[in-house]
UniProtKB/TrEMBL annotation:
It is found in: Plastid. This is Probable plastid-lipid-associated protein 8, chloroplastic. It comes from the Eukaryota. One of its GO terms (cellular component) is plastid. Residues 72-198, 208-235 form the Plastid lipid-associated protein/fibrillin conserved domain. The gene is LOC115748822. Keywords: Plastid, Transit peptide. The lineage of its organism: Eukaryota, Viridiplantae, Streptophyta, Embryophyta, Tracheophyta. InterPro entries: PAP, PAP/fibrillin_dom. Belongs to the PAP/fibrillin family.
Length: 239
């Protein structure tokens, strides 16, 4: 249970480099031109030269990174972390994530954007976040309410899965870990034994666990990561 629980969101824990400071959350990625202004510009230009450009013309810059972010969120939100998606839908998510990798900032583990609170909105292995609580049998007894990951400078991660057991008993599983940058994209997280809180009771169980993951994309809205076993995670920044 400890290993499964720690895999939680650990696969996308984005490591803060020791040189990174938390005070800056500004992205280094340039914001793409909006569709409306861009196409109005194209229309004015085409009217002058007597040419026309179709909206579907692949040469038209459609602000691709933002479009891809919107696309992947539309596919994974309200999917219970990916549980309700069919095989073809998981494939579509993977394709969009692959495309987004092209726009990832350099050295993402050093980006201050990694800090803050994130909702775990998708995993290609839907039972990985939350471990046994999210397995087919676990979901019979435990209804997941929230899956949250908080990244705190300089090197702390806190994962939380809150649930309702049998429909009326509230509880949560907590994990605290330390981050270490392995290179510009890969990080390692070592988690303490998980804590389980149910009603007024709290106890620790299991042992330490370790995970490694690659940060494949990050911006002001989402964070993507791939675990050492290939699982894809999508995080959305909490408002």
């Amino acid at each position: 249970m400890a290993t499964a629980s720690s895999a939680l969101f650990s696969t996308v824990v984005n490591c803060p480099s020791h040189a990174v400071k938390t005070r800056s959350l500004r992205s280094s990625r340039l914001k793409p031109t909006s569709h409306l202004l861009h196409f109005r510009c194209l229309q004015r230009r085409s009217s002058r030269v007597g040419a026309s450009v179709s909206v579907s013309d692949p040469r038209v810059d459609t602000g691709r990174p933002d479009d891809l972010v919107a696309s992947i969120l539309s596919k994974v939100l309200h999917s219970d972390g990916g549980v309700s998606l069919e095989e073809e839908e998981h494939k579509q998510v993977a394709e969009v994530a692959q495309e987004l990798q092209k726009y990832c900032v350099s050295q993402p583990v050093k980006s201050p954007l990694i800090f803050g609170e994130w909702d775990v909105v998708y995993c290609s292995n839907p039972t990985s976040p939350g471990g046994g609580y999210r397995s087919a049998l676990g979901r019979v007894f435990f209804r997941t309410k929230e899956m949250i990951q908080a990244l705190e400078g300089p090197d702390t991660v806190r994962n939380k899965v809150s649930f309702s057991a049998l429909g009326f008993i509230d509880g949560e599983v907590l994990l605290k870990g330390k981050l270490k940058a392995l290179d510009d994209r890969w990080i390692q997280v070592i988690f303490e034994p998980p804590k389980l809180k149910v009603a007024e009771m709290e106890f620790q169980y299991g042992g330490e666990s370790e995970v490694k993951l690659q940060i494949t994309y990050i911006d002001e809205t989402i964070r993507l990561g791939k675990g050492s076993r290939g699982s894809l995670f999508v995080f959305r920044r909490r408002q």
